[in-house]
Amino acid sequence: MDKARHILRDIFGYSDFRPAQGEIIAHLAGGGEGLVLMPTGGGKSLCYQIPALVREGTGVVVSPLIALMQDQVDALRQVGVRAAFLNSSLDARTAQEVEQALLAGELDLLYVAPERLMTERMLDLLARSRLALFAIDEAHCVSQWGHNFRPEYLKLSALHERFPRVPRVALTATADAPTRKEIAERLGLVGARHFISGFDRPNIVYRVTQKHSGTRNELLRFIRENHAGEAGIVYCLSRKKVDATAQWLEDQGLTALPYHAGLAQEIRQDHQARFLREEGVIVVATIAFGMGIDKPNVRFVAHLDLPKSLEAYYQETGRAGRDGLPADAWMAYGLQDVIMLRQMLEASEAGEEHKRIERARLEAMLGYCELTTCRRQRLLEYFGEQLPEPCGNCDTCLTPPETWDATVAAQKALSCVHRTGQRFGVNHVLDVLLGKDSERITALGHDRLSTYGIGTDLDANQWRAVFRQLVAAGLLTVDAQGFGALKLTDACRPVLRGEQPVWLRKDARPPRGGRRRERGRRDVPRPADGPGEILFEALRTLRRGLADAQNVPAYVIFNDATLHEMVAERPRTLDELGEISGVGQRKLAQYGEDFLSVILAHAAQDEPGTVSDTVAETLGLRRLGFDAPAIAGRRGLTVETVYNHLARAVEAGELSLREAVDLPDNELARVRTAFEAHFDCRAPALRPVFDALGGAYPYGLLRCVQAAEARQA
Q1: Are strands 503-505 and 403-405 parallel, antiparallel or unpaired?
Q2: Fewer Cβ in 10 A, N or C end of the chain?
Q3: Residue among 346, 304, 350, 298 at smallest CA distance from 319
Q4: Residue 267 and residue 372 in one domain
Q5: Using one digit for the tens of pLDDT, what is the confidence trace for 281-311?
Q6: What whole-number distance in Å separates Cα of residue 596 and Cα of residue 577?
Q7: Which of 173, 196, 219 is the last residue of a domain?
Q8: CA gap 175, 289 in Å, rounded
Q9: Which of 43-57, 149-163, 194-208, 424-438 shows the lowest mean pLDDT across its residues?
Q10: Does residue 518 form part of some domain?
Q11: 583 and 700 share one domain
Q12: Residue 592 is part of which domain span?
């Protein structure tokens, strides 16, 4: 574990393992096999990446999506890990180079799609290579509810037969107890150790609202008030709705891109790439989008239709807030969603046992939507985890819903379903209750029923809420084969007999106006406010420029959480910057000077016209004629720190550039020319200037020039 901790600190830039990580890594590094269940954003990747680096040979990662492989490899290369991938996006020559690197033992990690991995040619290639381990990511694809997406996952059990001495680990963020059992059986991991580190995502605020005619506007208001300019995912059930919603959000001035299987592959790839690499992009998608998405700063996930199960809901909402910063899971649903999902299920070719399981999962999803108690407690309870107290960070905790005694209303609704023959959907039953005068009601003779017109004490929207909640409570069911007809269940008998009261929640009207970012009691990192926001945006601008130059997503340089920590800590030296979480040795060497320059420049702007005591001491010695190396020797500082002090003095107007640096006029002119040609204030990185000058001048000296240029501007 000493080697593992060294890798964690120096390569990945983290001071300590998260809960369960150390135990998992020790087990796998020692050759053990495992099934790892860890919430999205909990650090699953390190659980196999570090053991692969500790052990001899190459770690082979089974990954489902091409874009995911590319991004993970980009991120690993940024920290100095020898990583590559093999998939259909590579030309023949590049693929051959990767294969040769594998055979030569020059790769630490290799990412492969299951389709390629299980070909005889690839298996033979692996047999001739030294392997550290197999990591099967997104392992829930193996289970019955997931393998329709990638049936090749079912063949992965052959790895144990072909490579019995190579340890395997399966990883997923979403699996209830039956699914975990199925994964273990299908992959031959029955005897493997299970690591379940918990399902709680305390940084996510869960919100559920009821569908109404203005739901789309409510979504827009939610985005503008809570997540303006931030990345998000909006899920819809149908391709048609995806296209319409994306276009409507675009028309409202947002950057929204559709994603579903009906689009050409090139369009899907382009939209996913834009989502990963650009800031503030919203993807509107079917569930075909998002599996394995590695983007850490997705600030919200919205559902405009009901997910099929709590597993699906947890998996999809888990794509928000992977960086640990506050995020939202927002959902709107209605009774029509239930009807549609049940019709889709009954029309499928799945066996009756599978349908029974899926019906139970849908009912659990419905129950979650209609809760009047803590949503997080219910969600965790579903996965077998207990939360002792309400979370204080979901809508039912933040704004407890009102309830009302709906016993009489429920009896009226149930009676009307019975009197109309349990053959009609909610709209017709509702019309009977309200005493509507229509040809259909008259023709059916429903205007002569005892329940005709007995529901005028409630309006149509209130009755819809009643029916929706009676279905969720299991008192009514929807006949998917009977065009959404409502039917009574045995559970409704005590209610009809007056033996059981019914309490329902009052539907809240959607909030209007007023930016709200209410957060609960959870101790989660928060974005910087005030002057910190200015520095954060400057750091994001720098990051964007560095990422664009390398054609990689911005977060593989540093994620938002690392930038926020830079803002909070305001490091003054490279050593201090190296203590920031997520800044490993490779990134410190590659990007440290650039990010430190921005931080120090903003420190000067925060205190215009003044210098700190330590800067004043350096300034005094400089005025006495000591150069930077001499000052460093006298004060026990690095030369770089001294130059940072001098740059601060230049920025404050206490020194001129000529007084700060000892350079002849011709050299100073050369440096300034390099700044004019290579320095971009929109992405203020010093490395292009440093490289253009052949490394002849230290970064600290360049920072003094930067300060002088900024003062003149």
Answers
A1: antiparallel
A2: C
A3: 298
A4: yes
A5: 999 998 767 655 678 899 999 999 999 888 8
A6: 7
A7: 196
A8: 19
A9: 149-163
A10: no
A11: yes
A12: 531-712
